[in-house]
Specification:
Layout: E1 4-9, H1 18-35, E2 39-42, H2 56-66, E3 71-74, E4 77-78, H3 84-97, E5 104-107, H4 112-117, H5 125-140, E6 144-148, E7 153-158, E8 171-174, H6 178-186, E9 189-193, H7 197-207, E10 222-224, E11 227-229, H8 238-246, E12 254-262, H9 266-290, H10 304-310, E13 313-316, H11 318-332, E14 336-340, H12 348-361, H13 363-368
Parallel strand pairs: 1-2, 1-14, 2-3, 4-5, 5-8, 8-9, 9-12, 12-13, 12-14
Antiparallel strand pairs: 6-7, 10-11
Length: 375
């Protein structure tokens, strides 16, 4: 089983002006590209310092221009906040303009506070998500869209745009229990979770028997030393699509996200991680505290030490990080590792240091460790 390495990014507010913040984050994403990471996934949040990329498509259009091989996408598009036909068009544009490097996650939105700012009734979020997803998949398939639901109704709408990847870019979903993982497998979705290795093992037992090819058939990838990348599009685009038809679909991905801070000195790594996590945690909790309600479905510790204890953060020297991740990967049975190298007030230099050490001294080792096929 091939192990893939990716990035998850809240794009939570750090130091400096917004212009400086965005430029530094794009420079860091260029470093991910150079280091050979498979994919960059960005969260969507609104009216909170937890997410400075409230329009993932806008941010990812810049990512597409600043990178060459890195795949990218939202994790997730909060579907109830979008007109589904407009989102179809945005997805098609991003996929075409990036040469077929887009993958995308979908969800209903974890925060009723954020959805409420847009006038949405949280009680309708699940049904709106289900309808919007159906329309989205119909639109990406091309032709004309006709749909009649409680929230969306369309009749014979022509789809002039199309994605480069066929039949569509691969789908992702955030899940944290076996039942959700099983539903995702049946729908052909890749799954990523913020969960301990033991929980992921249980999710895998539900996911792998059903997920032979969670990613949509496309030739989004060809093998290379740094990971799997799409065929490059020619001026007409026809050659890229032809290679797409010839390449095999990638295997399904079940993965875990981890906060990661690495330094040559373990004590320094821990001090940096503690400082940055406090800023990230304050951003995460800001809206919940203002509205005096607890977060939905999560209970994160106020210090990163709690994350380290339960395995959701990995901090230390390259050798220490390598050993911890090897044990977690063996226990969990996942084939995708999502890394958070930028969070809180980590500086660009601190994040780049973690990325460089991970790419040189952790990633090659973990990739070389023999792994049993999850299926």
């Amino acid at each position: 089983m091939t192990l893939s390495f990716g990035i998850f990014d809240h794009v939570d507010r750090g130091a400096g002006t917004l212009a400086e913040f965005y430029e530094n984050r794009l420079k860091l994403i260029e470093a991910y590209d150079r280091a050979g990471f498979y994919i960059y996934l960005v969260a969507e949040h609104h009216m909170t310092p937890l997410g400075m990329a409230p329009s993932p498509s806008v941010f990812l259009s810049a990512v597409a221009q600043r990178t060459k091989r890195l795949r990218f996408g939202p994790l997730v598009y909060t579907l109830p906040l979008y007109h589904p036909l407009r989102l179809v068009e945005e997805i098609c544009m991003l996929d075409q303009m990036s040469g077929g490097r887009l993958e995308f996650g979908v969800g209903k939105g974890i925060s009723p506070i954020e959805n409420g700012y847009y006038g949405l009734d949280p009680a309708n979020a699940e049904k709106m998500f289900a309808e919007a997803l159906e329309v989205l998949l119909m639109g990406l398939a091309g032709g004309r869209v006709s749909f009649s639901g409680a929230f969306y109704r369309f009749e014979d709408v022509p789809m002039e745009l199309e994605p480069l990847q066929k039949p569509r870019p691969p789908l992702w979903y955030g899940a944290n229990n076996p039942q959700s993982a099983e539903r995702c497998a049946r729908r052909g979705m890749n799954v990523v979770a913020n969960a301990p290795a033991k929980v992921l093992r249980g999710m895998g037992e539900a996911y792998w028997p059903l997920a032979k090819h969670a990613a949509a058939p496309s030739s989004r990838q060809s093998e290379s030393e740094g990971g799997e990348y799409p065929a490059r599009q020619t001026e007409s685009g026809r050659a890229g699509r032809s290679r797409s038809a010839l390449a095999s679909a990638a295997s399904a991905k079940l993965g875990m996200n981890r906060h990661i801070v690495i330094a040559e000195d373990g004590a320094e790594a821990l001090a940096v991680a503690r400082r940055a996590y406090r800023r990230w945690y304050a951003s995460f909790m800001k809206l919940w505290r203002e509205h005096n309600i607890p977060p939905v479905s999560v209970n994160y510790p106020p210090e990163i030490d709690g994350f380290i204890e339960n395995g959701l953060a990995v901090v230390g020297t390259p050798a220490e990080v390598r050993a911890i991740l090897e044990a977690q990967l063996a226990e969990s049975g996942v084939n995708y590792l999502g890394c958070r190298f930028a969070f809180g007030d980590l500086s660009l230099a601190e994040s780049v240091r973690s990325v460089d050490l991970f790419a040189r001294e952790v990633m090659p080792y973990l990739r070389a460790v023999p792994r049993a096929a999850a299926e």
